[in-house]
Design brief:
Bound molecules: zinc ion
InterPro entries: Cell_wall_metabolism_enzyme, Dup_hybrid_motif, M23ase_b-sheet_dom
Largest sheet: 10 strands, antiparallel
GO molecular function: metalloendopeptidase activity
Radius of gyration: 17 Å
Helix content: under 10%
Keywords: Signal
Distance between the termini: 36 Å
Protein name: Putative Peptidase-M37
CATH class of one domain: Mainly Beta
Shape: globular
Length: 239
């Protein structure tokens, strides 16, 4: 078993360090294929007073700008979905499963929950406002409340949102949640409130430019977005 440090970068804005050890990544044959088998992490319709898709999964401009720091251990991309929501919004399990971790070492502080699902998939709910009252090992049903949404900066003013990831159970592979979750992604993507854009490499300007076409991420893999001709450029003109 190898040990790796899950530092502030991989923890998506963490200020504290935690340690996690990882099993080998599971092969495709062990992982359920996407079949819209999950639901959204909120009840009720989206809207400016409830919840909206804020930042997509993948090669976002925001992730590009932080590719060597916050997302350096995630190949430089945003390995989950951000849903804008007022602090305290009930967060729901996207599927039936078992609570695997409450405030575990897998990122997205200040509080998080991991649910294990059939097909060796795990969902992570990050930036929760308070510690979830769930117990590890507890069974949950799709739609059960697993916590309250919070703010990655812990102010409930700066960046209130839920960070949702879909991983393999080894926590080595990160999947685009869109084909796994039944939702009107076209409408949600059009109405998003921040970070909608994807980073271009002008040498391959169509690559990773739609919500559906984003790459899988492997923990610790090489950066995917060290683009030769990035657009927009990083602030200050650097790369
Ligand atoms: Zn996020």
């Amino acid at each position: 078993m190898r040990f790796r440090t899950l530092g502030a970068g991989a923890a998506l804005g963490a200020s504290a360090f935690a340690f996690a050890h990882y099993a080998p990544a599971l092969p495709d044959s062990a992982i359920a294929r996407p079949a819209q088998q999950f639901g959204l992490p909120f009840a009720g319709p989206p809207g400016p007073d409830t919840w909206m898709l804020g930042q997509g999964y993948g090669n976002t401009t925001g992730a590009y700008r932080q590719r060597r720091r916050t997302y350096g251990n995630l190949q430089g991309v945003h390995a989950g979905l951000d849903f804008s929501a007022p602090c305290g919004t009930p967060v729901r399990s996207i599927g039936d499963g078992t609570v695997a971790e409450v405030d575990g070492p897998h990122g997205s502080p200040p509080h998080n929950v991991v649910i294990n699902h059939a097909g060796n998939l795990s969902s992570l709910y990050g930036h929760l406002r308070v510690r979830s009252s769930l117990r590890v090992g507890q069974a949950v049903k799709r739609g059960d409340v697993i916590g309250q949404s919070g703010d990655s900066q812990e102010t409930c003013i700066s960046a209130p949102h839920l960070h949702l990831e879909l991983r393999d159970r080894s926590h080595q592979r990160f999947f685009n949640p869109l084909p796994y979750i039944r939702a009107d992604w076209d409408s949600l993507s059009l109405a998003g409130s921040f970070g909608r854009g994807y980073q271009y490499d002008l040498n391959a300007p169509r690559r990773w430019q739609t919500p559906e076409s984003q790459p899988e991420v492997r923990r610790g893999g090489a950066l995917l977005n060290e683009f030769a001709r990035p657009w927009p450029p990083a602030p200050g003109g650097g790369r």
